[in-house]
Amino acid sequence: PLTPSVSPEAGREGKACPREGIILPGAPAPQTGPSFGRVSNSLPKGPDRPTPQVHPSDQDDSLVQRAEHIPAGKRTPMCGQCNMVIRGPYLVAMGKSWHKEEFTCSHCHSSLADVGFVEERGSVYCERCYEQFLAPACFKCQQKILGEVINALKQTWHVYCFLCTGCQQPIRNNTFHLEDGQPYCETDYYTLFGTSCHGCDFPIEAGDKFLEALGFTWHDTCFVCTVCSTSLEGQTFFSKKDKPLCKKHAHTVQF
């Protein structure tokens, strides 16, 4: 929070000097990961195929998709893998049609016909391979992220791990501010640490120019003569009862 400077005594002159805002600006809107499907499915259990560990926050925004089975019909689409005509039943996934036997994990080559998969940069992976080799780890809980990824403070986070320090709600891709290295949503930041302009009563937001005078903080455009509204930024000014006055009106106005 800002600390007001010592104000000139009433009737004595002072000089207001503009300062750059020291409120930490919010980081850019966190980016999210690739836009993937939202239907969750786990791999078959077995000694050589462990079920991926799903974080609670991944259940609502999972990257895992499932291929749709289409029965044989009059339509004969082209396979997205071999570019050959498909005759008989086929799969539909990622906007393409596939021979059932050719829709496989790009890493381990296991069939993805009946299990969940994740698309990454045009390739498809089973859940196990994605979690083991591609999924980023959450900075807070250190578990792999199988859902929406929040990129903030040079780290990756689960949606429900990147929280406002005040209200403990997910910040998601909203603007946030830092105080002592901790993230706060805009509402809590201005409630807890915000400074209001003494001239207009609106908050002094990140990036705003402001100055400190008469024991208060002002937007640079709000520090004006109480009588004629002449800007006093960088100018000699006088005060009576904490009201700023230009030199012209300092000795002619009574409050």
Automatic annotation (TrEMBL):
Keywords noted in UniProt: Cytoplasm, LIM domain, Metal-binding, Repeat, Zinc
Pfam families found in the cross-reference section: LIM
Domain LIM zinc-binding: 77-135, 136-195, 196-255
SUPFAM superfamilies on file: Glucocorticoid receptor-like (DNA-binding domain)
Annotated segments matching region Disordered: 1-61
Main location, first listed in the record: cytoplasm
Compartment(s) where it occurs, according to its Swiss-Prot or TrEMBL record: Cytoplasm
Keyword Zinc assigned: yes
Composition-biased stretches (Polar residues): 32-43
GO MF annotation: an example: muscle alpha-actinin binding
One of the GO BP terms on file: actin cytoskeleton organization
GO CC, alphabetical: adherens junction; filamentous actin; stress fiber; Z disc
Descriptive protein name: PDZ and LIM domain protein 5-like
Gene name per UniProt: LOC107749371
